[in-house]
């Protein structure tokens, strides 16, 4: 088979679910058969890793900044100059302009990939519906990270579900000495119930719910440390809420971290009360680390390894049910069982890579 050149459209080259997924896939791809390049809108910490693997990255201004016509012209020029066999857009219903440029450039394989099941920032349903329809119209193949994400973006059109993978080789079990050192750095005391959350400070992640939980746990005399990992526009608002609820000694803001897989191993429970998630790769990472997670019932079930580590709860139900789940001790899950479940569900990076590359043939 001749070498296939694929251009991926990703929001950023910084750490995040979509970028991490595509980097893991690119790492496992047979580079004598497939070559990946990228268009992105923000330069981030994956930039060097991607370029070191021989990929080009074309950075574009947001469409809202340069206008759709200028964006289409720029993408069209890239496609014509580089002669790609496929364009794979990971921006969901926003993909219409990329896919239109690809269609005009004569790219035979145009992949529309949905990673979310809600358009939180869109109040105009007419425009949203039009964007989705035009994106689907200009695509030749439809992919979603979960059933819900596909139904949201593609309506009743047939699509393929290809879940986000987990790269098992990236998981390094912390030694007792490493755990002791990290706990000392984070001021975790013996007897603390260590809770963690990883996600940007944006409305959908529902950080205010976590602070309410922390306040109730403190009222009940339960010694907790809640670590919030990430950054974002609502961070200062949540810091203010922490002060108002008088839980400063219980809640720590860790900012942007690159050692997520190590931090996860310090947590007794991982909390994800999101209003929605397209897939929730961090839940897969938590399970691989053997950490029990308590999550909102709206989240996709495709991420559940069915080994008893995920506990789904209603956000609109009694908060006491969340507290009960937090304080309940979990049975330790054997690491081999976790690895076997990853393989059985086909969520390992090698299997997902083969599925995705088959789309380009």
Give the SSE map.
Blueprint (H helix, E strand, L loop, with lengths): L3 E6 L7 H12 L5 E7 L6 H6 L4 E3 L3 H4 L1 H15 L3 E4 L6 H9 L4 E6 L10 H13 L3 E4 L2 H8 L5 E2 L14 H10 L7 E6 L8 H13 L4 E6 L5 H10 L6 E5 L4 H5 L4 E4 L8 H8 L4 E4 L13 E4 L5 H9 L7 H10 L4 H11 L2
Helix pairs in contact: 1-15, 4-5, 5-6
How would you describe the overall organization of this protein?
- The chain has 361 residues and is α/β, with parallel strands linked by helices.
- It has 2 domains: 4-163 and 346-359, Rossmann fold; 168-344, 3-Layer(aba) Sandwich (Rossmann fold), CATH 3.40.50.2000.
- Helices cover 40% and strands 17% of the residues.
- It is built from 15 helices and 13 strands.
- The protein has helices at residues 17-28, 47-52, 63-66, 68-82, 96-104, 125-137, 147-154, 176-185, 207-219, 235-244, 260-264, 281-288, 319-327, 335-344, 349-359, and strands at 4-9, 34-40, 57-59, 86-89, 109-114, 141-144, 160-161, 193-198, 224-229, 251-255, 269-272, 293-296, 310-313.
- The chain has a 7-stranded parallel β-sheet with strand order 3-2-1-4-5-6-7. Strands 10-9-8-11-12-13 form a 6-stranded parallel β-sheet, sandwiched between helices.
- Helix 1 links the parallel strand 1 (4-9) and strand 2 (34-40).
- Helix 1 (17-28) packs across helix 15 (349-359), helix 4 (68-82) crosses helix 5 (96-104) and helix 5 (96-104) packs parallel to helix 6 (125-137).
- The longest helix has 15 residues, at 68-82.
- It starts with a strand and ends with a helix.
- 40% of the residues are buried.
- The model has no long low-confidence stretch (mean pLDDT 92).
